[in-house]
Amino acid sequence: MKKGMIIVMARKIQPELTKANILAVSEKLFIEKGYEKTTTQEIVDLTGLSKGTIFHHFKSKEAILVGVLEMHIDNAAVEVGKWLASMEGLTAREKLILFLDDPETTPEEERETLLFKMAVATQSPQIIVAEMKKAHEKIAPIIASLIREGIKDGSITTDFPDECAQILMLLYTIWIDPLTFACELGVLKKRLLFIQHTMKAIGVDIISDQFIAGSLEFAESMI
Questions:
Q1: Degrees (nearest 5) of the Cα angle 161, 80, 163?
Q2: What is the CATH number of domain 61-222?
Q3: Is the pLDDT of residue 7 over 50?
Q4: Rounded to whole angstroms, how far apart are CA atoms 165 and 61?
Q5: Which of these, 52, 109, 134, 171, has the minimum number of CB atoms within 10 Å of its CB?
Q6: Within 13 A of 174's CA, how many CA atoms are on the CB side?
Q7: What tens digit of pLDDT does each residue of 196-212 get?
Q8: Residue ranges of the alpha helices (H) in the chain?
Q9: Helices 40-47, 3-33: inter-axial angle, 10-degree rounding
């Protein structure tokens, strides 16, 4: 490889490494101290970068929080793809049920929940809506692809794979999410049962009783 090419590649890589450093340090501070109590100066001190460099990549602390959230969404989409690809010998419906049930909360998911609660705490609807849209754009196509697989293997029957995936994501991220659409547990249970009944009626029977129980347990922990 020629020297000039190495220099060009280094120039392209360096900004990404700088951004990754800012996001990693900021995430640590946000989780340890909370979003409001974390100062830009603390981010500057821990990254070893100048304030000018920080604001060159992110125009505000709020923009850094958005960057951290988007990093988690991207990582989650990659991990979901890998996990589903490893599920051999199962029908698409069985894969989707396992994916939605997700019986154990991982440290990664706990961080995502905490960070999203911080986004809610900023009282910025723009952040919340933008991140929901980003998650929808990343995850809904994966679900739609599985629904198409289910149509082929006979475990799912619908003429609307994309629409089913999209509406499921919208309901999951807004209507039954206790962080964004708070309600009493009794009301949430009825919503979950309604979604279960509706999805089954249209041939996409993937909402299990275990999913409903897990969702209610998670919602209760958020109260």
A1: 15
A2: 1.10.357.10
A3: no
A4: 33
A5: 52
A6: 15
A7: 999 999 999 999 999 99
A8: 3-33, 40-47, 51-57, 61-85, 92-101, 107-121, 125-153, 161-170, 185-201, 209-222
A9: 130
The answer to whether 132 and 177 have CB atoms below 8 angstroms apart is no
Residue 133, Cβ density class (10 Å: 0-12 exposed, 13-18 middle, ≥19 buried)? exposed
Q: DSSP 3-state assignment of 112? A: helix
pLDDT digits (tens, 9 = 90+) for 69-102: 888 888 878 888 888 778 888 999 999 998 888 6
Assess contact for 122 and 159: CB atoms under 8 A.
Answer: no
Measured torsion, CA atoms of residues 29, 32, 33, 38, in degrees rounded to the nearest 10 = 0
Contact predicate 40/29, CB 8 Å? no
Q: Who contacts 138 (Cβ-Cβ below 8 Å, separation ≥6)?
A: 73, 74, 76, 77
pLDDT at 150: 96
CATH class of 1-59: mainly alpha
Calculate what percentage of the chain has a pLDDT beyond 90: 42
Structure token digits, residue 80: 């979901």
Domain ranges of the chain: 1-59, 61-222
Mean pLDDT (the chain, rounded) = 82
Half-sphere exposure of 73 (CA within 13 A, CB side): 20
The CA distance from 160 to 203, in Å, is 10
Give residue 123's identity as a one-letter amino acid code: Q
